[in-house]
Amino acid sequence: MAMQSFNPVFFFFLTTISLFFLIHFLSPAKAASEIVEGVCNDSDNYSFCIQALESDPKTPAAKNHMDLAVIALNLGISNSTATRSYIARLYKNQKKKKTDHRKKSTLEGCLWAYDGTVASFRSALMELNEDPLTANYDSKVAGDGAVHCSGLMTSSGIKDSSMSNGNYFILRFSNIAFVITNHLDG
Question: What is d(CA 146, CA 114) in angstroms, rounded to the nearest whole number?
């Protein structure tokens, strides 16, 4: 039986295919996308979850749920802080007008609620390494401020799309962070 001679074209083809599969299946971006996919499948709103997490440029480098938790909680902090700032501006303007007590009272209640929301997201971020169970709890209750603010808006008849959107986003970020921190070992 004659020995086969070395075929450089076949060797190059085999090496290229092997490298492609190694890079494709072992890449950090692939691992991150699988983690994101799993989390978002468990979240309340899949498409919002995917869009939110992929909006952060650090997401493709996430190696595990801990990395993703940091990203999600920072998104929650950023969005709750922005919503709180918006409410604070409305409240300041309302105080100057001194006309609608209901609106002033609602804004005051929403400010108070968002103080708790921002604090819960920040607390969850600080607790990730030492106490994941408490971080999980704080991630969940971070949404309570948005629920409270929405209730105040409904009961007082105040309609403000920016506040409503802020409340909606905070509920989604709270849920995403809760889902992710459920995967952490505690």
Answer: 7
Handedness of CA 177, 179, 183, 186 (dihedral sign): positive
How far is it, in rounded angstroms, from Cα 74 to Cα 164?
21
Here the tokens at position 160 are 């403000």
Contact 115, 102 (CB under 8 A): no
pLDDT band at 99 (very low <50, low <70, confident <90, very high): low
Rounded to 5 degrees, φ, ψ at 183 are: -90, -5
- List, as one string, the DSSP characters of 21-68: HHHHHH-HHHHHHHHHHHHHHHSS-HHHHHHHHHTSTTGGG--SHHHH
The dihedrals phi and psi of 63, each to the nearest 5 degrees, come to -95, -20
- CB-count exposure of residue 41 (10 Å: 0-12, 13-18, 19+): exposed
Over residues 17-75, the pLDDT tens digits come to 544 444 444 444 454 588 899 999 999 999 999 999 999 999 999 999 999 999 999 99
DSSP 84-106: HHHHHHHHHHHHHH---HHHHHH
DSSP string over 137-182? HHHHHTTHHHHHHHHHHHHHT---HHHHHHHHHHHHHHHHHHHHHT
